[in-house]
Amino acid sequence: MNPDLLSVNSHFFNMTCNSFLLCFLVAVACKCSWETRKRNAMFLVTVCLGGPVSRASNCKDSYVDRVCGEDQTNLWLDIVFVVDNSEGMTNAGITSVSDGGIYELKETGNVAAQISSLFVAGQQLGIQSNNPRTTRVGIITYNQGATVAADLNKFTSVDDLTDGVFNVLNKVSNVQDSYLHAGLQAANDLLEQQSFNTDRGHYQKLVIVYASEYKQSGTQDPLPLAIRMQQTISISTVAYGQDDNLGFLAELSKIATPGYNFTNQQGENTVSELRSTMLQVNCYCPNGWFQMRQSYANENSFKYGVCLLPVTLQATWTASKFSCRNHWNKAYLVNEYTQTKHDYVLQIVRNTSAFTQPYTYFNGLSYVSGNWQWEQPDGQDPIIVSFFHYVFCINIAIQLQNWSDWNPGYPTASSTATVGVNVQTSSSSLTTGWQNTRKDLTNMYICEVSTCDSTNYCKAEDI
Q1: Would you list the domain boundaries of the chain?
Q2: 278, 137 in Cβ contact below 8 A?
């Protein structure tokens, strides 16, 4: 869950029952349309009764940084499943069929059912000329060697995939040896042939491994290959059948991209975790941009649907604003809703050699019509910056942003100092704060844009 989600809680309105009636009357009495009055009434009834009012991340009146897209039906990935079919997996582990030959999809503990359960009704598979947001799925089985059981162009629907998965994974082999290196190499080769250097070259790649054994002798050690693959491919692992073998779990987890290692003992939670992994892999930034995380130091911390770009050329605030738009479609000067965002931006600045102390860089603040406001994507209304913010058409103040970072004495009252800049005021402290300054002065600046993800498709030529 996004740790910075903000709610308007009932303690902002410590009202009695009489106040509730007043709320309702005020809500419906304003000079608005009937639809607006109904929304006002519902909103204030909720507040007056003491219920929390949460603000969605895509609501223009909220101060919430964007999260990665969560639309499972519109994932656009190339995924290869690498499945151990050696004797160690067992028939019960790799597939499950009822006496009548009907697939037991409820038993998500087995590989075939779990793979089928990852994809939801309406999800677009294969290649569609009129819809770029599709996912392709390939399957590799391995034991002593590896076999391409289904290439990336085989499945064109979820039903097609379900049928194919149970046909491919209908039983284990009679081979005892299990060499993950062979499976990974086959997956890498398949992606090289059918994904990289094709029209889907800019699609993110994900390999999901189901393994019951880990061998690391000589040329069959999968770790060096996995490390090379992780430069361009995300890898997730699911350990099967040996959850009491800590050595096996520890070694297999090294194959995975950090945070993407799971076990079959998690049952249905594994499906949820893998779906989340798919959404996270599909959430990325254009080349040269930094994806915002909860922690700059921890690469495995929560990732936001926000990309940041430090621009080291000097420009006026207005020129910076238009420069951001030219760097990427709908990019804009950075906003800083929270301490987390502010700190992450500052870490980018500190780790970009062109920025030198004392740090000074433009942000997206500007003073317009008596209000400080944050820049938003072109075509969207700016967000007013104030301790209190007016909601709907009635004069009821709702606290939406209680964090600000003005340096002491700022903002100053000035008809010319109408834009925001982050300034380091002390050489003994590597922190910055907001100040208002003149539009005609020049500084470096930070741009912001939404990630490429399941709700925001990015064309290859734009990346």
Answers
A1: 7-54, 72-281, 290-462
A2: no
Largest CA distance in the chain: 81
Residue 128: Cβ-neighbour burial (10 angstroms; 0-12, 13-18, 19+): exposed
Nearest to 264 by CA among 92, 145, 138, 80: 92
Q: Which residues pair with 452 in a beta bridge?
A: 284
Cα–Cα distance measured from residue 296 to residue 319, given in angstroms and rounded to the nearest whole number: 29
- Superfamily for domain range 72-281: von Willebrand factor, type A domain (3.40.50.410)
Q: What letter represents residue 148's amino acid?
A: V
pLDDT, position 241:
66
| Nearest residue to 338 (alpha-carbon basis) of 302, 368, 310, 370 | 302
Question: Tell me: the pLDDT tens digits for 66-117?
Answer: 999 999 999 999 999 999 999 878 766 666 533 333 334 333 348 999 999 9
d(Cα 179, Cα 191) in Å, to the nearest integer? 19
pLDDT for 129-163, tens place per residue? 899 999 999 999 999 999 999 999 999 999 999 99
Residue in this structure with the two tokens 């294969």, named with its chain if needed: 126
Contact indicator for 117, 123 with CB cutoff of 8 Å: no
With H, G, I as helix, E, B as strand and everything else as coil, classify residue 220.
helix
Place of tokens 């993110």: 204
Please tell me the number of Cα atoms within 13 Å of 394 on its side-chain side: 21
Rounded to whole angstroms, how far apart are CA atoms 363 and 375?
9
Fold exhibited by the domain 290-462? Mannose-Binding Protein A; Chain A (3.10.100)
Residue 379 burial (CB < 10 Å; 0-12/13-18/19+)?
exposed
153: tokens are: 């162009």
Segments of the chain with pLDDT less than 50: 1-62, 97-109, 387-400
- Match 């064109």 to its residue by tokens: 156
Gyration radius (Cα) of the chain, Å:
27
One DSSP character per residue, 259-326 reads T-EEEGGGTHHHHHHHHHHHHHHT-B--TTPEEEES-SS-TTSPEEEEEEEEEEEEEEHHHHHHHHHH
Residues in a beta bridge with 128: 131
Predicted TM-score (pTM) of this structure: 0.79
**What strands, in cross-sheet order, belong to the sheet with 261-263?**
146-150, 136-142, 77-84, 204-211, 234-239, 261-263
The partner residues of 103 in beta bridges, in order of sequence, read 97
**Helix, strand or coil, per DSSP, at residue 27:** helix
**For residue 267, what pLDDT is reported?**
61
Q: Among 239, 249, 183, which Cα is nearest to 211's?
A: 239
Q: What is the pLDDT of residue 426?
A: 92
